[in-house]
Design a protein that fits this description.
By secondary structure, the protein is of the alpha/beta class. The chain has two domains: 147 residues, 3-Layer(aba) Sandwich (Rossmann fold), CATH 3.40.50; 67 residues, Orthogonal Bundle (DNA polymerase, domain 1). Helix 4 packs parallel to helix 6. It is 44% helix and 11% strand.
């Protein structure tokens, strides 16, 4: 695959954290009267928190998000990530070996990204390359966030690969005109993940980071002078 840059999602891709986030969503939402299941969470992975809560509110038949839910959810998710956020297996070696421009583009807030990446020890490797959906008008599945990251990297969209664990993120990559690649190595994903990623546009799905250099060797090649 001939690409010049790579854009990573964060939770579920760089960080094996989606299972922590999902469990907190279910617990807190039920406490506020929203009947939310883990299947509901899997169907919403990749969206911003406010969009996820609106989906759950509508499903439950309420007109508004319950008062205090957003604040409680943010607080408890951040506490979980600060305590337990860990990198996905092998990703540190990938980030260290990359010779091409790269960025992180996530639906999470800037403060949550710094917190979780810092706890996992990855922040020094990605400092100055992290972009949040709060920086654009439309989050995933719109292409805005990935297009922002590409502009900041100075690379044309068609020369970028996006690595995502969610159908919404992969749809955003397709809409941006980028190469969408699924990552299925997170503990929150089951055997149904790869087919869902392919149906969202991924031509390739990585089971482990060791497979990335073989898929896109140009990302790891020394620049020619």
């Amino acid at each position: 695959m001939e690409v010049r840059a790579v854009i990573f999602d964060c939770d579920g891709v760089l960080l094996d954290s989606e299972f922590l986030v999902a469990g907190t969503y279910v617990e807190v939402c039920r406490r506020f009267g929203l009947d939310v299941s883990h299947a509901d969470l899997r169907a919403a992975i990749g969206l911003q928190q406010d969009k996820i809560l609106r989906r759950f509110t509508e499903k439950t038949g309420l007109s508004d998000i319950p008062a205090g839910l957003d604040v409680a959810l943010t607080s408890e998710i951040n506490a979980k990530l600060e305590a337990d956020s860990e990198p996905t297996d092998g990703v540190r070696a990938v980030l260290t070996a990359l010779r091409a421009p790269f960025a992180v583009a996530s639906s999470s807030s800037p403060s949550r990204l710094r917190l979780s990446l810092g706890r996992a020890g990855l922040l020094p490797l990605v400092e100055g390359r992290v972009f949040s959906a709060t920086m654009v008008a439309r989050g995933k599945p719109a292409p805005d966030l990935f297009l922002l990251a590409a502009r900041e990297l100075g690379v044309a969209p068609q020369d970028c690969m996006v690595i995502e664990d969610s159908p919404f993120g992969l749809q955003a990559a397709v809409a941006a005109g980028m190469e969408p690649v699924g990552y299925a190595g997170g503990r929150h994903l089951g055997p149904e993940a790869a087919p869902l990623m392919r149906s969202a546009g991924a031509r390739h799905v990585l089971a482990h980071w060791r497979d990335l250099p073989g898929l896109a060797p140009t990302l790891f090649a020394e620049a020619r002078t």
